[in-house]
Design goal:
260 residues; alpha/beta; Rossmann fold; seven-stranded mixed β-sheet; 12 helices; 7 strands
C-alpha cells in the first residue's frame, strides 16, 4: 500500500495543529496502521505529546532530529524514534528549528530537501501514513513540508481570531502549486469549539463558503486535552472516555476515507 503523507498547517498559531496531528496519528496506529509522525515546529509540541520533556530535550540536543537531518540534507530514516505506542514512531524536532529558514536559503533546490529526505522511507513502504506538523508560519520551510505531502489538513479554531489569516493560507497554497503540484487540501477541521457561543455557528457558515472540504467532526474544548498534554500522552490513551477522545477517533475515520 502506498504511503500517504498528510501535513497539518495553518499560519495562525493556537489552531490545534499539533494536538490534531498527534491524536489522528494515535488513532490510526491503534487501528493497526503503521504511522510516522514528523515534528516540523521549533516549539516541539508534537514531540512533547508523546515523550516527556526531559527525553524531548535530549532529542533536540542530539543529532537524531529533524533539524540535524535537514541541515545535513541526510536521510530521515536515521532520525526515527519508537514511541511507547505500537505502530507509532516519531521524528522529533529541535529548538534550533528557529534557524531553519536561514539554513535553507543557500541550499540547492531548497524547496525539496524534506521530500528528498523522506524518499527512502516512503519507498520502503514501512508506513501507511506519514503525518507532519507544520509551524504557524508561511515561508520556505512550510513550502518544504507542503512539497513533501500528498494531503493538507487545516485546523481552524472556532473563535473570532480563528479565521484570521486563513485567506493568506489559501493565497500561499496557490503560490506553491509550482513546487507542490500534486498536493490536495483534504479539508478543514474546526477545533476548540465552545457550543455555548454563537460564534461557532458563524465560523461554520464562513468555512462552508471556502473552496475546501469541511470535516463533519468538530473538536470541542475539553480539559482532558490539556491534562493529556501535561502527561505527554494522546488524549485517546490518557482518557478514552473523554468527549475529545471520541471526537478525534471519529475525525480519524473521516480522514481515512478521504485520504486513501
Amino acid at each position: 500500500m502506498k504511503t500517504c503523507t498528510i501535513c497539518f498547517a495553518n499560519n495562525k498559531g493556537g489552531s490545534g495543529k499539533s494536538t490534531t496531528c498527534s491524536n489522528i496519528g494515535y488513532f490510526l496506529a491503534a487501528s493497526g496502521k503503521k504511522v510516522l509522525l514528523i515534528d516540523g515546529d521549533m516549539q516541539m509540541n508534537l514531540t512533547l505529546s508523546l515523550f516527556p520533556e526531559e527525553e524531548a530535550l535530549a532529542f533536540a540536543a542530539g543529532e537524531k532530529n529533524l533539524y540535524a537531518a535537514i541541515r545535513k540534507e541526510s536521510d530521515l530514516a536515521d532520525c526515527i524514534h519508537s514511541s511507547a505506542y505500537e505502530n507509532l514512531d516519531l521524528i522529533p524536532s529541535s529548538t534550533l528549528m528557529s534557524g531553519i529558514e536561514f539554513d535553507l536559503f543557500t541550499k540547492w533546490q531548497r524547496e525539496y530537501i524534506l521530500k528528498k529526505g523522506l524518499q527512502k522511507i516512503k519507498d520502503s513502504g514501512k508506513y501507511d501514513y506519514i503525518l507532519i506538523d507544520a509551524p504557524p508560519t508561511l515561508g520556505g520551510w512550510v513550502m518544504n513540508i507542503l512539497a513533501a505531502s500528498d494531503q493538507l489538513i487545516i485546523p481552524v479554531e472556532a473563535s473570532p481570531w480563528g479565521l484570521f489569516g486563513l485567506s493568506n493560507m489559501f493565497e500561499f497554497l496557490s503560490e506553491v502549486k509550482s513546487v507542490a503540484p500534486d498536493l490536495t487540501v483534504a479539508g478543514i477541521v474546526v477545533t476548540k469549539v465552545d457550543g455555548r457561543k454563537n460564534y461557532f455557528k458563524q465560523t461554520i457558515e464562513t468555512l462552508q463558503d471556502l473552496p475546501a472540504h469541511l470535516f463533519e467532526t468538530c473538536i470541542h474544548l475539553d480539559s482532558s486535552i490539556e491534562w493529556s498534554q501535561d502527561n505527554s500522552k494522546p488524549v485517546g490513551k490518557y482518557r478514552p472516555s473523554a468527549r475529545s477522545s471520541k471526537e478525534y477517533k471519529a475525525l480519524t475515520e473521516e480522514v481515512e476515507k478521504i485520504c486513501r
